[in-house]
Amino acid sequence: MALLFAILIAFILYPVLRVVWIALSDETGNLTLIHFLNFFRRPLFREALWNTLVSGLLVVVFSGLLSLPLAYIIARYEFRGKLLLQTAATLPLVIPPFVGAVALQLILGRSGMINLLLMRWFDTTIPFMEGLAGVVLVQTLHFFPFILLNTVVSLSNIDPSMEEMAQNMGCHGFRLFRRITLPLMLPGFVAGSLLTFIRAIDDLGTPLMLNYKNLLAPQAYLRITTVGMDDVDGYVVCVVLVVLSLVSLLAARKYLGLAEYATVQRSAPVTRRLQGKKVFLVWLLCGAILGVSLLPHIGILLLSFSKVWSFTLLPTTYTLGNFAEILFRAPHFIKNTLLYTLLAAGLDIVLGAAIAFLLLRSRLAGRNLLDAIATLPLAIPGVVLAVGYLRVFHGWDFPGLGAPLTSSWVILVIAYTMRRLPYTVRASYAALQQVHVSLEESAQSLGANRLKTFAKITLPLITGGLVAGGLIGFVTSCVELASTIMLVPRIELGPISYGIYIYMQSPLGRGAGAALGVVAILLVSLGTYLTHRFFGGRAGNAFRI
Amino acid sequence: MQPAEVKLDGIGKSYGEQWVVRGVNLHIRRGEFFTFLGPSGCGKTTLLRIIAGFAFPDEGTVSLDGHPMNHVPPWQRNVGLVFQNYALWPHMTVFENVAFGLRERKVARSEIEPRVMETLKQVDLQGTENRRPSQLSGGQQQRVALARTLVIQPRLLLLDEPLSNLDAKLRIDMRIELLKLQRDLGLTTIYVTHDQEEALALSTRIAVMNGGRVVQEGTSRQIYEQPANEFVAAFVGKSNLFSGRVLQADERFIELQTDDNLIIRTASSALAKLPKTGGEVLLSVRPEAMELKAACSIPTGPNQLTGHVAASAYQGSFVEYEIQFAGRSLKTYAVNPKGKALFQRGDEVNVTFAADDVVIVRND
User: Would the N or C end of chain A have less CB density within 10 A of its end CB?
Assistant: First the structure.
């Protein structure tokens, strides 16, 4: 317990508080709000804040518009090819948003495929990818599955008798949807929306890739990396980001606490079978939505095999050279990724299981505080955690390492571990909750001691949940960019996400970057597939708040 | 609104190859408390859902008050339904739940509140109107579900195992409440249950169902006292079944010999036709009709046998004995055991029963 507290405080609470403290104090160490006043006095920052809020909300709105019809169709209808659609609907999650940004540039950008066609046929272009619109577009296409998955779970948890009763009372059609179905599925929708909002304002990679800097996350990054570690404005921006995320997270918690109806399901959800023309219409609708959301995948795949691709519809020459580059000339990106993320996932499993065990099976005082700190990373943008780490661990030799922590790759493993800890805590908690205490008690009454009971009864029963939690940690760490680019000590210690970022800086490196992107997509797909295997139908739950 | 009458004509419903309901003909009269009784999977809930309009029959016609209903959607039937799990909407208060049906019917705003309040009073739920369903006990939720349905004054009330989620004592209390309420309102009610006690206590008539078919239809007394077949005899109450052949039959008595060489005599009056001599029959004797005495002599007359007590269970108002006889076990109830000597395991006992208590269940 004490050890857990020490770890969580050292690597989560203290770095964040340090950031907050710098933003709130003056040179002499007194509490002051002057930096915040300055922040709001600067038009640049006011605009960044406004843009962040607007783009976050727009992403939520557009994602909601995409997700609602899809969710309803998936949860309520049975038709040929539904499984295919369901799988396609989760694919956007496997492509890191900043990789998607590059790919979309090629297809929808100023000189991308679509605009070249428009230019040729109609002598006009549409600025899909310019400025804020581009950021919103990329983020919407990447994040909408969060809303989709949560809404589907919510919808299929509605007991069919709830709707039948309303029909029996004379209610039907859209009115039935508005009065019964919508309010009952709202908790899932809201949970997904908030998750999307938090992830969208936290996303550093997309704006950087699209070269749109006037948002809070890139502002914080630029301040710290260009102006310097001592520039107080960077810290202020960080604190504003944390406040935004925390407020949304708490609001979500509060709302869900009120509204998460325990609709214990008794009968199987009713799905209607569609046939003939209706299947065609459903396919048309889903196909259109998912087709657009799979554009990034297509773009990145093409780019990874291309030698030259500029101002043309498709690449002009193809090559395998990009893969040779990343597999043989610079294989360290892939190696590093595997090393860091697997280590982090392993640590997450151990920490998550320990915390969940304390929460559910002990009566120790302070276990709720432990839970609170372990959940905190959900609301801490990667930039902020990275800034905190730089501030706290820079410039002094870490015991046992002989160098500052920030100059070792270990810092990345720690960052990944802490960032993804909430997922494994949730997963272990859920798994452990399924194991009724009586199962352990009967083992103990038959003569097994505590340790044996844990090893023989509890552990086998929760392994699935633990591994699934670890896999989600692995999957999301693979494509973590925000904290990575700030914490990578040297280029040869960087993981895939860093590699992609570096390659994409130069036009000649784009192909290799895309090849790395393909590798990232494959890794994430593998992880997601395995998660589904372990979690089964409950995989959607892992993406809930 | 006048209570409805319901006619089911040759109703059949299949899921794929499997017929869940087949060839059901029933006429439920105005004001009746009619029960579909049967084990799970017998098709009783499907039949109820067909009447409510949530399932469409593949064969036959449902009519309400003479109007065919097969293609009328549920929201136009004005039929009240109470689900087994109550299906209270968690996002609405008790008041909103109960007012829902009135709002759907465009009842004037000023009229809604008094009607909701009156109905809540009827089911003894005053003061709970601003609570959420999750803040109520099981029994209260059950009554909200009932109030929600009663408030729209349906012409027909459908109840799908409404008491099965309550604990035993509450279930018996609610049974009486429900009985009084239904008799006061005179509402045609169709009740689905697998609990034979509940069915006997509440119903004016019962349809016992098995394997998708109605196997007997009649009043509670007819069902219990004259089970029409082996299934009803065994499913409704407990029965001791004997198979045997007819030795002789006249207008007053029928005498039979069972496979274990017992001689059993029964009254002929209850039978429509006399069985042939030598015909195979199945007999049922209820446990409470069997009387136990300490064995003193070898039984000689009909309707007597000697056995051993294999188990005894004292239940307060009666003692349940299991008697070992000729390689099989019989159940007997000794009612009102207060102060009397009880038999112990291993005791030898004489069992006797009256000719009137023997029912011929199958008569080939």
Answer: N
